[in-house]
Each structure stands twice: as structure tokens, then as C-alpha cells.
Amino acid sequence: MHIGEICTNQASYCGRDETVQGAALIMRRYHVGDVIVVDQSDSAKVPVGILTDRDIVVSVIAPGLDPASLQVGDIMSDDLLTARVSDDVYETIDRMRLRGIRRVPVVDAAGSLAGIVSADDLLEFLAEEMGELSRISPHQQAHERRARQ
């Protein structure tokens, strides 16, 4: 299965010149814990970083800085892992695990933002897969009973 089939298509984003306070307001408005930082040209929104609620707490609030005076580009994580909509789910999980990353922007073939996939999205997908796998044995037993009659 491709990651584009399970990602959230409506990803919250902002530019790197947005204030940290403005990014926090976006997170609040959409009830999310991150915003993807994009460079926008024409209609393309190319992910260049990510800012999480934890980044704001650790980098701004804890040291007592003013979130209205800092820009997202000053504190965003720019060592960004992205996935293409056509990437395999299990390969994406492996890349996330190796990097210790819980949220990954998903991009289309042109590199423009198409969505986001989180560890929670992947856990839900895997739980559904495990549920389907658990149904094999009862079906097999019923099939054997019918075949023996």
C-alpha cells in the first residue's frame, strides 16, 4: 500500500517568516501538534521544515522568549524527512523508525505538499491490518469443516 492512501490530506502549514505565535494559533485553530513549513512558489508548497508544539515549548517558552518576536524559520526543524505519495507504507515506517520521527510530510511527484502521515496514522493502519490477519484462522477452520462433511 502507498503512503498517499493513508496520509491526512489536509496538512497545516505556514511560511518560514510566520511568527511562532502565529504558528501556534494555526495549531490551535486546526487542533494539531505541528505545522509544516513551506516555501511557496506559484501553486507549489515545497516542505522545508516542520515546527511542533514541543519545539515551541522547548525552544521558546522554556527559555522565556517572546513567540511574537521570533519567526518559525528561526526554530523549525529543517532536517526534514518527507515521503512521496507513492512510497510504500512499510518503507516509510522503517525510515521514520530509523530517524526517530513521528510526523512526516507527504509530497506529490512535483515535491509539493500533499499531506502528512503521523505515527498515530500508521498505528491505526497496522491495527486494521492485524485485525484482518486475526480473521484468517476462523475462516480457515470453517472452510475445513465444510470440506470434511
Description:
With 149 residues, this protein is an alpha/beta fold. It has a single domain (3-118), classed as CBS-domain, CATH 3.10.580. The protein is built from 6 helices and 6 strands, in the order E-H-E-E-H-H-E-H-E-E-H-H. The strands form 2 sheets. The chain has a 3-stranded mixed β-sheet with strand order 1-2-3. A 3-stranded mixed β-sheet has the order 4-5-6. A hairpin with a 2-residue loop joins strand 2 and strand 3. It starts with 12 loop residues before the first strand and ends with a helix. The relative contact order is 0.19. The mean pLDDT is 92.
Main attributes?
149 residues, alpha/beta, CBS-domain, 3-stranded mixed beta sheet, 22% strand
What secondary-structure arrangement, pairings included, does this model have?
Layout: E1 13-15, H1 20-30, E2 34-41, E3 44-52, H2 53-61, H3 72-75, E4 83-84, H4 89-99, E5 103-107, E6 113-118, H5 119-134, H6 136-148
Parallel strand pairs: 1-2, 4-5
Antiparallel strand pairs: 2-3, 5-6
Query: What oligomerization state is this entry in?
Result: single chain
Give the proportion of residues in helices.
40-55%
- Placed side by side, the strands forming the largest sheet appear as 1-2-3
Distance between the termini: 38 Å
Number of strands: 6
Q: Name the CATH superfamily assignment.
A: CBS-domain
Quickly give the CATH architecture: Roll
Molecular shape? elongated
Gist?
The protein is built from 6 helices and 6 strands, in the order E-H-E-E-H-H-E-H-E-E-H-H. By secondary structure, it is of the alpha/beta class. The chain has one domain (3-118): Roll (CBS-domain), CATH 3.10.580.
